[in-house]
Amino acid sequence: MELGKIKQLLDAYFEGNTSLADEKILKDYFNNETVAEELLQYQPIFMGLKAAKAEQSTRVFSLGEPETKTIKGWWYSVAAALVVAFGIGTLYFTQPQYTQEEKEALAAFEKSKEAMLLLSENLNKGAERLTFVEQFETSKDKVFE
Amino acid sequence: MEKTEFITLVMPFKDKLYRLAKRILVSKDEAEDAVQEVFLKLWKGKQNIANYKNPEAFAITMTKNYCLDRLKSKQASNLKIVHSNYQTSENVEKNIEANDGVAMVFRIMETLPEQQRIVLQLRDVEQFEFSEIAKILESNETAVRVALSRARKTVRDAMIKNYNYGIG
What is the pLDDT averaged over residues A61-82? Predict the structure, then answer.
């Protein structure tokens, strides 16, 4: 690569007007060719930029934790929702269901049961009084014997 | 998306993310932590990553934002002493592995403003097109060119100064 071209590219480089291809020419020149003495001061820049790309990390990056965590949390909420839904469902379906007609019939039945109870109570009161009649009978027998 | 699928998608640009993180945060450990954090975030949002046309650019933007946030919170708290400790140990490392001139370039790059550092890293180290860099930085090509030119000139001027001292 002729010196004039390199100098021209260098000027454009510092103005930010070089293409990636131009910059590759510069990098190759300063890294691989015998650099002209007047340009030696620029050499470390391009050597440094090339060296910077070789840098790597040896650490092993992991994706471990968050995956299991998020999946577990998700399942917990699903399980909880299912249990609640099941509980409400069973409660709802085990309740006896009556139609309007049946409800009315049931109410009528309760009322008549109450009435019958009242009746039998009064009847019992009457039956209690009958013991006096019985007593009267035995006393009468004693007298008129 | 399966784990293996995700890894084959993300692993090719793992080193690019690491280098960018290290350029911004300087410390090797912090850069690795940052990449790990970005990977977890990407993995959590893996349904989205497939929708992006360019997962690499997306991951780089994410890394840049994360590192700048880290830097901000670090400056807010009192971790500066730890930070400068890291710097010296890093520089010793560099001096061993490269010659003094190259180490000098790295040192100068550390003194650049963050945006210029990021532009220089993406263009001169990773060779991205201006349009890609503009997208990654949510900026425009002209602004990228200006920042890049400034960064390159700062490095040049500092190197020439250093070179002339060396000669004289």
Answer: 74
CATH number at residue B35: 1.10.1740.10
Q: How many C-beta atoms lie closer than 10 Å to residue B152's C-beta?
A: 22
Instruction: Write out chain A residues lying below 8 Å of B145, CB-based.
Output: 16-17
Is residue B85 one of the residues assigned to a domain? no
Residue B80 tokens read as: 């500066």
Chain segment A99-136, per-residue pLDDT in tens? 888 889 999 999 999 999 999 998 888 888 888 888 88
ipTM of the complex: 0.81
Type of residue found at A103: K
Q: Taken in order A93, A99, A102, A107, is the CA torsion positive or negative?
A: positive
Q: What CATH number does the domain containing B143 carry? A: 1.10.10.10
Q: Are residue B53 and residue B113 in the same domain, yes or no? A: no
Q: Which own/partner pairs from A10-13 qualify as long-range (CB within 8 Å, at least 24 positions apart)?
A: A10/A39, A10/A42, A13/B152
- Quote the number of domains for chain B: 2
Q: Tell me the residues of B at the A interface, defined by beta carbons under 8 Å apart.
A: 3, 6-7, 14-15, 18-19, 22-23, 28, 31-32, 35-36, 39-40, 43-44, 98-99, 101-102, 104-106, 109, 121, 123-127, 129, 145-146, 148-149, 152-153, 155-156, 159-160, 163
Domain that holds residue B75: 1-80
Residue B125 resides in a domain: yes
CA-only gyration radius of chain A, Å: 54
pLDDT tens-place string over residues B148-157: 999 999 999 9
Q: Is A8 left (phi over 0), alpha (psi -120 to 50) or beta?
A: alpha
| Cβ neighbours of residue B156 closer than 8 Å, sequence gap 6 or more | A14, A42, A45
Based on the fold, state whether residues B15 and B63 are members of the same structural domain: yes
Residue B132 resides in a domain? yes
